[in-house]
Specification:
Strand content: 15-25%
Number of strands: 18
Number of helices: 22
Helix content: 25-40%
Radius of gyration: 24 Å
Shape: globular
Largest sheet: 6 strands, parallel
């Protein structure tokens, strides 16, 4: 706990609010020196780049479920961080971001509100310390109430030196009413047991909302009572142990044969915290065409947005499942369960490397083998992200940090740093590609500065692999701008003070992964894989999920 003397300066009052909300870290860049620069506030974490700082706040929040706090300037800071703001907002990550500007400087030409409004939950502009303090209090509530999201507070840095005289009225009561979470009427929940009893082929889709709402215990109880088979979205992985006997795997564009076929043949689809992106549904007209659909989501905007739903329920997934578990629930049809489980066993195998280079799936399984049960895994975006989703056995919620909505390359390393700051005694594994990793590799210095226990695994194939795969499969191998060069990652790591290891065979991979897990502090590993290896299954553009190429 940080102790401060009672003062009236705005800066001190702001710190008091951070203390009240148990803010552990404030993520910022080293160049942003206007706040805390003359005092020893050791909860600031400094990054090289603004985008990485906000990705780290995002990773911290996903790991803990708490609000991540970031600090930007409205010069290059806010424009650098636009991508990371969009990444967090689309994945419903609660962040409070302070954006400061300097009076009479050229940066006032930037319309911060206009730049950020489309990718935030709420925006404030404070003109005095007496406005900033109540706005900050409201921001912490708004960020985590209802569907979590980003709240931005834009202000002039000079007001932090003003004398605080008391909160100025900013219609907080109206804001509190707007963002107050509504309870789910009991009669709506009471309709569901009858639907479950009548269903012959029910399936549950576990979405990211199950993780966000901390519904893992209620969901496990619901599964035990009903024995309904379930599938996961990318963001839903970890809500239930991936090795659960009822789990059919991930659904969607790169989903398993069993998961996509079960959803297609379902007569009842219970969708928990799912927003039905195109990566989940494939062709909307062909998505689970014969099922009655129940959608439980805290955001009314997501109900009936893309998929017509017969039984919409607006509310918290955890609260809904908790209510449902108190009712009389019937077990599902045993014949249906046997059928889908047989599909699971016959699910298509991923294509393996044709030469002696390491199979990516084998690398992921080795990482899984040597990782602790509570390991936190972050990824960038591309083929390695899908290989991780399929081959790493996520056993607990908030153990998988990945950009699901935006698909942001460069997310993995800074998110891993945020996770490692939050959980310093847990293993953190960052899985990346040689393309994605180069987008924020400068934060190796941050990992070294704080001596974080991050193990980085880079899949090296000399391509932007997922884009190349699409060009190969759907554009007749007309490759364009996908072949890349990269540095010697081992030497690069060593130049930053990170241990660097490399493998080109499965035996070497086993050896370096085992060694990396035994070392304290950051370690970077590179694995040379086949350059034109593809991720399968994959649903072709415009196709149904049942049309996946195997």
């Amino acid at each position: 706990m940080i102790q401060f003397e009672e003062q009236k300066l705005g800066e001190q009052k702001l710190i008091d609010i951070f203390e009240q909300h148990k803010v552990e870290f404030l993520f910022k860049t080293a160049t942003n020196q206007s706040f805390f620069c003359n005092t020893d506030h050791h909860f600031t974490v400094e990054f090289i780049h603004d985008q990485a700082a906000i990705h780290a706040a995002d990773g911290y929040s996903r790991t803990t479920g708490k609000i991540g706090v970031g600090w930007l300037t409205s010069e290059s800071g806010v424009t650098n961080a636009v991508t990371s703001l969009g990444t967090a907002q689309l994945d419903s990550v609660p962040l409070v971001i302070f954006i400061e500007h300097q009076r009479n400087s050229i940066d006032q030409q930037l319309d911060v509100d206009g730049l950020t409004k489309s990718m935030t939950k709420y925006n404030f502009t404070a003109n005095s310390i007496n406005e900033l303090i109540p706005m900050t209090k409201a921001a912490f509530k708004i960020a985590q109430t209802g569907r979590p999201g980003i709240v931005v507070i834009d202000f002039n840095r000079q007001i932090l030196r003003q004398t605080y005289e008391g909160d100025q009225q900013i219609h907080i009561d109206q804001l509190n009413q707007e963002f107050t979470q509504k309870e789910i009427p009991r009669h709506i929940i009471e309709q569901l047991p009858a639907l479950i009893a009548q269903a012959k082929q029910p399936v549950i889709i576990v979405g990211g909302g199950c993780v966000i709402s901390n519904a893992h215990h209620a969901l496990a109880n619901f599964l035990a009572k009903t024995q309904i088979p379930f599938v996961s979205t990318l963001m839903g992985l970890g809500a239930v142990n991936a090795d659960h006997p009822l789990h059919l795997g991930m659904i969607g564009m790169h989903g398993t044969f069993a998961a996509n076929r079960a959803v297609h043949q379902a007569d009842l689809l219970i969708c928990l915290g799912v927003r039905f992106s195109d990566r989940i549904t494939g062709n909307i007209k062909g998505f689970s065409p014969n099922s009655l659909k129940v959608q439980i989501d805290i955001d009314p905007v997501e109900i009936n947005k893309l998929i017509d739903v017969e039984y919409p329920i607006v509310g918290d997934v955890n609260a809904a499942l908790t209510q449902l578990n108190h009712l009389n629930l019937k077990r599902t049809n045993s014949d249906w369960l046997k059928t889908v489980m047989s599909w699971h066993k016959k699910s298509a195998q991923f294509h393996k490397a044709k030469n002696k280079l390491i199979d990516p799936g084998a690398i992921i399984r080795l990482l899984n083998k040597y990782a602790n049960n509570d390991a936190i895994v972050s990824t960038d975006v591309g083929q390695h992200q899908m290989w991780t989703a399929h081959h790493f056995s996520f056993q607990k919620p908030r153990s998988f940090l990945t950009s699901g909505g935006f698909g942001t390359m460069g997310y993995g390393l800074p998110a891993a740093i945020g996770g490692a700051m939050a959980k310093p005694n847990q293993q953190v594994i960052c899985i990346s590609g040689d393309g994605s990793f180069q987008m924020n590799l400068q934060e190796l210095l941050t990992a070294v500065r704080y001596q974080l226990n991050i193990k980085i695994a880079i899949f090296k194939n000399g391509y932007l692999g997922m884009v190349r795969q699409w060009q190969q499969l759907f554009y007749e191998r007309h490759y364009s701008q996908v072949q890349i060069s990269s540095p010697d990652f081992v030497k690069l790591a060593e130049s930053y003070g990170v241990i660097g290891l490399a493998a080109e065979t499965i035996d070497q991979a086993n050896e370096i992964i085992k060694k990396a897990m035994e070392v304290k502090g950051p370690v970077l590993m590179t694995f040379t894989i086949e350059d034109e290896l593809n991720v399968f299954p994959i649903v072709p553009p415009g196709g149904n999920n049942t049309d996946a190429l195997q």
